[in-house]
Amino acid sequence: MRKDKEQIKIIPLGGLNEIGKNTTAIEFKNEIILIDCGLKFPEDDMLGIDVVIPDMSYIFKNKDKVKGIFLTHGHEDHIGALPYVLKEMNVPVYGTKLTLGILESKLKEHGLLATTKLRTVESRDVVKLENMSVEFIRTMHSIADASAIAVHTPMGVLFHSGDFKIDYTPIHGLPADLARFAELGKKGVICMMCESTNVERAGYTMSEKMVGETFQRLLTDCEERIIVATFASNVHRIIQIIEAARRNDRKVAVSGRSMENIVGVAIELGYIDVSDGIIIAIDEINKYPKNRIVIITTGSQGEPMSALTRMARGDHKKLSINKGDMVIISATPIPGNEKPVTKVINQLFKKGAEVIYEKLADIHVSGHACQEELKLVHSLIKPKFFIPVHGEFRHLKQHAELAKGLGMNNEDVVICNNGDVIEISSDEIKKTGTVNAGQIFVDGLGVGDVGNIVLRDRKHLSQDGILTVVVTMEKDSGKIIAGPDIITRGFVYVRESEDLIFEAKKRVKAVLKQCEQQNVKEWAVLKNTMKENLRGYLYEKTKRNPMILPIIVEV
Amino acid sequence: MRKDKEQIKIIPLGGLNEIGKNTTAIEFKNEIILIDCGLKFPEDDMLGIDVVIPDMSYIFKNKDKVKGIFLTHGHEDHIGALPYVLKEMNVPVYGTKLTLGILESKLKEHGLLATTKLRTVESRDVVKLENMSVEFIRTMHSIADASAIAVHTPMGVLFHSGDFKIDYTPIHGLPADLARFAELGKKGVICMMCESTNVERAGYTMSEKMVGETFQRLLTDCEERIIVATFASNVHRIIQIIEAARRNDRKVAVSGRSMENIVGVAIELGYIDVSDGIIIAIDEINKYPKNRIVIITTGSQGEPMSALTRMARGDHKKLSINKGDMVIISATPIPGNEKPVTKVINQLFKKGAEVIYEKLADIHVSGHACQEELKLVHSLIKPKFFIPVHGEFRHLKQHAELAKGLGMNNEDVVICNNGDVIEISSDEIKKTGTVNAGQIFVDGLGVGDVGNIVLRDRKHLSQDGILTVVVTMEKDSGKIIAGPDIITRGFVYVRESEDLIFEAKKRVKAVLKQCEQQNVKEWAVLKNTMKENLRGYLYEKTKRNPMILPIIVEV
């Protein structure tokens, strides 16, 4: 490979070997751009962590070269890290109307709205930089205003699919701009990055229109109040719910902060037409009979503070579940959320609701392309090189196999890790190095301070709690003048464990006396001796392993 | 309802509004029997808990009346609590061969094997007690030797389905004894308890035979080593794997402690025929070419210490995953296990294996009846009264609706909670009271000592860790003579938080000085003041809420 400035570098910083924090850097000559900048939700073992963002240290080290951040769509795993990143560098952010509308709410919460340079684009708009141009191309996804991105360089086009499905009967707006895909494929795409979420699924993803037909069927002849929970960001779904309500002469109320926000933005942008006064406030619901109401709410994932979950628990301030309500959960549980969702479903049933969820009816379709749609895009784009993105390893691997099944050569398909530096020349794609990459934990106000040690301790504490031993010693002699006192939390129920604690104190006293006699004075040794002795004793008696915290006070 | 000793009482103690710890007591005159005695695996918020068993206090209070424990089959959620229960009362346990074979291993681990009275039964055997008789009836499930149970009383038959599916082409043994179901229905079943796990699914569960056909297809012309992970208890699945191996001239090795145990028991009982020497030891694998080996292993649920998970992680002592291995995961993730399973799948792909799992091929069928099979059983048994069991509320509710859809009256179908006392007379079924019921947590050696307070503390510790403040005061004056010292675990990374800790100490000192000046000496007040002051400060600075443990040492 010629080692000169003609190489394009693709540096994924998130979204590979995971679902979440999608972030890709493209570097050419002296310019860097980012495609997306997302967050990931914490895994079960990331105790106390609020969100996970990508390690952007390479980008921050080169922030002068960063010319723009280009967003494919407004989901959290594509824009959620921006408030943290924009605190470190103020770079223009390009996106479609709804995408920036959603981002604005976030920036406002973080106090960054006034200073961030937001640039709205439309489909086929091209942003010209010094050495590259970035084009937005309309696609379809489970959120309106989704785009693919084409980066035009002297060496050819880099194509990034964003998240997409092929829906020939879209609810709002035009279908994916497949004509432009074909034009780019004809022009010459040197490398495609394409999402891999549904690569395991054969066939096609069903059209969003089908969900509308199910809503229509459910609402027809229904004499009860209807509550529909769905993703706030799925504007097309909301449009269909409103449309079905309209056809069945029902008013619509909206519940849940993010739902109110995004529906508000969508109405402002003219995506949802409510000029006939169909939307009413929650407080007005009681003015109508039950069979003339539809409530659209957050909580399709069983999120603890969401509107539907609070209704199911009985602690929503304004809304309760009435016997006979039809509650439609118009989403499938994201992997990991199955239990919170079924918990809410059970609570709703117990309150006498009739609950319709994905196991019982077709009230959700995926926003991600299945195998036949992926093959279509590969065949239109005809890239020279291919990097599967947006998936765990099993998705990336199977997407690579799909590409090879269509005729791509093994050496032209690269499965990467976050942090890999992939260099592309006219005749070769090659991994040439790595940069820092990984996860940064956000906990409260702290970004990156919680790391493995803190998490390891939280894990230990969560399993068997903590036992604190406090001993007060005289400064020079090392004699015990107070204690040992033992305080536990999360270990045993103290009232029933007095003997255990009493015996533990005796042991600590005995082992410290031994140390005194052997003239051992160094605190580190004393503490370790107490720890080891107690650990063995407690495990023998309880088969539990609490964290042991020896504290020596010297007076 | 006549209040006399002719009432039969059904008292569910586990398995309602949950999947797990199935335990039902039946009380008639002076006799009590238990049908099953299972455990439940801990939910995510049951930190540090090993298993959950039912609250059996009602049974222990009446242990002299308990005449026998009757087991429907050998799954953990039907027999897993027995080692804990049999420590409190030594009651004969009745079950089929494989069921008791599996139970024996457990009792041995708990040192109860010698003293427990195990009684083996076969299909259609009847155990005569003073006032009732208990009959075992052959069914099909995802474990061999599964039974339904009929309790014969002067008032009629109580029928308990156990866990079952209707499989007309069973792999081993005879199909479910539907003729006996019909005979009982004709004789007169006064009340049926029937499992509800798959009531959401329309149609039929596929036959186990179909999985065998998939195995055959995968093994034919395969030139690689094959590893199959499945539930150790699914003897029929293991028979099919061995049969496919046999037909393709491969040897079979078994890996994983529970797999080795149960396969051993099944061979002893003659359920698996390995007289042709098809089974080899793990150590002999290397004597054969890769295309002549099948390894059957534990780990189909991504269990951390299972054989397949250790192979995927690379720390199995005897087996590693080789590039090209075909790994078949012949199970679906139990709800809650999706992430551990996909983690293993990703690791296997990374090691170069070809992984076949349920999304990609038909390599698993459920062991639970779907709607049409449930309707069949209702129609054969024709009970007067019906109690849906073995399900969360949504399952019980939908099963009740299914029964009413077949013509049962509303008042004859009862959805219960654990602990309800259901009395049955010849003309009425009625809830007449409750007994203690609920969950007992087992953690290490402790049974029932970990309760809400300990769990609440573990939860708090897991989120933001702990901050311990130690202050040494002079006995009478209340003057601070050492400290405050602050030690944290799981809260912040200390090296980066020195300012925070320094400031926190200052605040504690200041607030204690105030207390001294106001002559406040009571420890409870001092500790609370320290706690509140610190909590506010730490939250303001970090938006985190660690547990705060103030410790006062007096000298």
Folded structure, characterized:
2 copies of one chain form a homodimer. Chain A is α/β, with parallel strands linked by helices. In chain A, 31% of the residues lie in helices and 24% in strands. In chain A, the strands form 5 sheets. The first copy, chain A, has an 8-stranded mixed sheet with strand order 7-6-5-3-2-1-20-21. In chain A, strands 8-9-10-11-12-19 form a 6-stranded mixed sheet. In chain A, helix 6 runs parallel beside helix 7, helix 9 crosses helix 10 (338-350) and helix 14 packs antiparallel against helix 15 (523-542). The first copy, chain A, is globular. Chains A, B: The active site is at residues 195, 368. Chains A, B: One of its GO terms (biological process) is rRNA processing. Chains A, B: Zn(2+) 1 binds at residues 73, 75, 77, 141, 163.
Number of strands of chain A: 26
Please report which band the strand proportion of chain A falls in: under 5%, 5-15%, 15-25%, 25-35%, 35-45% or over 45%. Answer: 15-25%
Helix count of chain A equals: 15
Uncertain stretches of chain A: none
The largest beta-sheet of chain A arranges its strands as 7-6-5-3-2-1-20-21
Morphology call of chain A:
globular
Report, as a whole number of angstroms, the end-to-end distance of chain A. 70 Å
Radius of gyration of chain A using CA atoms only: 29 Å
Global mean pLDDT of chain A:
95
Oligomer: homodimer
Q: Biggest interface: chains and residue counts?
A: A-B, 68 and 68 residues
Helix content of chain A: 25-40%
* Major pleated sheet of chain A: 8 strands, mixed
State the secondary-structure class of chain A: alpha/beta
Cofactor (chains A, B): Zn(2+); Ca(2+)
Subunit structure (chains A, B): Homodimer, may be a subunit of the RNA degradosome.
Subcellular location (chains A, B): Cytoplasm
EC number (chains A, B): 3.1.-.-
